[in-house]
Amino acid sequence: MAVSRADTSTLGRWWWTIDRWTLAALLALVGFGYVMMLAASPAVAERIGASSRNMFFARQIIYLAAATTLMVAVSMLSIRQVRLLGWLGLGGSLLLVAATLVMGVEIKGARRWLSLPGFGSLQPSEFLKPSFAIVAAWLIAEGKVNRRHGATLLAIVIFLLIAVLMKGQPDIGMLLVITAVFFAQFFVAGLNLFVVGFVGALGLFGAGLAYMLFPHVQSRVHRFINPESGDNYQVSVALEAFGHGGLLGRGPGEGRVKNVLPDAHADFVFAVAGEEFGLVICLLILGLFAFVVVRGLVRLLGETDLFVVLAAAGLLTQFGLQAFVNMASSLHLIPTKGMTLPFVSYGGSSVLAIALGMGFLLALTRRRLSRVEEER
Questions:
Q1: In this structure, are residues 343 and 270 in contact, taking their beta carbons and an 8 Å threshold?
Q2: How far is CA 10 from CA 5, 69, 78, 307, in A?
Q3: Contact predicate 238/1, CB 8 Å
Q4: Under 8 Å CB-to-CB from 295, ≥6 apart: which residues?
Q5: CA angle, 173 as apex, 209 and 202 as ends, to 5°?
């Protein structure tokens, strides 16, 4: 893009202050999203009897285009505008998540989606993750400045409210991601090591409680430890797909996993990539996720604003953890969890929420000359 350094317009300032390497990596992941939908979704649409083989691909074109636009638009915001949008997003998401408990669409025993005319289904909890990361970072930072404000206590109260709503749906996987983000922010803020140990023990207790209370959690753990104890069809087929793909893959369109896996275009899209494009492309996708996380953390080394550090750390934790869970589930390294691969898997709510979070990250890590510029 040919933009002069003397250009003081909004676009000019944005171009010369944005982290262009991170933006390029994110756009590369969006490109992989288009390629993987073209590879995996037609077979899935045909198997379920959809009206068109390109139904999922056509939708994802719109979702990814909207997500890219949203990410770039949010990345142009100032720090003050990021905080404001975080609060608005959190408030709206909490109301919509609460609405799912009353009027939500029930799928496989869970009420996580709202049916919207013209959009399909919306999963409001996806937007909780980036919004809560921003709000929690601001409250923790304010609590560090003045402990009398009770800002940190408010952050904990909001987290507990989210936990209650997540349990009601139920969506334990989403709750674990939000918990990891919240804990990472407290840790970066300088949490006492004794408290770190206590919270870690509390987390283990919570995991054990989830295992005892939720049958689907028990089932997934049992199938992970002992694959012969239940239905491991999807994971077994995914592992076979990686084996068939080898180093360079069987070639575009030559894979069979997409013809038999129900979630080949969503939760197991990484297996499709492994079979058709091979280990090399899988490592490239993994490298792009690692690059975004590491690059973001490196950008924070010279940052003096605690809010920016905490917010960016939370967003990077969410982004990296979600990618890890998806890929590790496909490789049977952890118990299976229905979680999308950021920008690569099919899904409107997921890709838009991830774009919002990465837009926040790009806005927070922009180079700013002064505190006055930060607040503009």
A1: no
A2: 12, 16, 11, 24
A3: no
A4: 19, 21, 22, 25
A5: 40
Written as one letter, the residue type at 305 is D
Give φ, ψ of 343 to 5 degrees. 70, -15
d(CA 321, CA 290): 11
Quote the longest CA-to-CA distance of the chain. 66
Torsions phi, psi for 116 (to 5 deg):
-120, 130
Is 371's pLDDT higher than 60? no
Q: Distance (Å, rounded) from C-alpha 308 to C-alpha 141?
A: 9
pLDDT digits (tens, 9 = 90+) for 255-313: 888 888 777 788 888 989 999 999 999 999 999 999 999 999 998 988 889 999 999 99
Q: Of 326, 112, 322, 110, nearest to 216 (Cα)?
A: 110
- Per cent of the chain over pLDDT 70 is 83
DSSP, collapsed to helix, strand or coil, labels residue 232 as: coil
HSE at residue 117, side-chain half, CA atoms within 13 A, is 0
State the average pLDDT for the chain: 83
Q: Which of 12-21, 52-61, 240-249, 289-298 has the lowest mean pLDDT?
A: 52-61
pTM of the shown model: 0.88
Both tokens of 67, joined, read 């997500």
Let me know the angle formed at the C-alpha of 241 by 235 and 243, rounded to the nearest 5 degrees.
Answer: 110
Q: Which two tokens stand for residue 52?
A: 């068109």
Alpha-carbon span 162 to 156, nearest angstrom:
10
At how many degrees (to 10) do helices 151-168 and 79-103 cross?
Answer: 30
The rounded distance, in Å, linking the Cα atoms of 330 and 77 is 36
Domain ranges of the chain: 27-374
CA–CA gap between residue 297 and residue 236 (Å, rounded): 35
Distance CA 343, CA 353 (A): 10
How far apart, in Å, do the first and last CA atoms of the chain sit? 24
Give the number of other Cβ atoms within 10 Å of residue 31's Cβ: 14
Kindly state the tokens that stand for 319.
């982004």
Structure-token pair, residue 198: 């206590």
Dihedral (Cα; 161, 164, 170, 175), 10-degree rounding: 50
One DSSP character per residue, 313-330 reads HHHHHHHHHHHHHHHHHH
